[in-house]
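Worked problem 6 (solution included).
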Amino acid sequence: MAAHLRRLEDRLGRTQRAVEALRELLDPGAERTVTLEVLPPQRVYAVSLDVPEGAGLDWYDAAMRDLDAAAGHRPVLPLPDLFAGRRASAWW
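Solution. The predicted structure is:
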């Protein structure tokens, strides 16, 4: 149960950081700094699906389970890329 709680807390933290980032992006008065980073090649996992209107976030939980399974339950970053609408993507 403790491990499950840690996973939930981790997911909550990621969600809170994503909300903060989205709020900043939507703030027309926010100053933004753009930087370019060169990173070594990385393995990328993706899920793409059509989300029915009114589906809530059940699709997100299913997508995260698929990504966790594909990644072998290793810690993976960055945050998922989520956007509103009928088409949704999550990547890790």
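Discussion: Residues 2-26 form the longest helix (25 residues).
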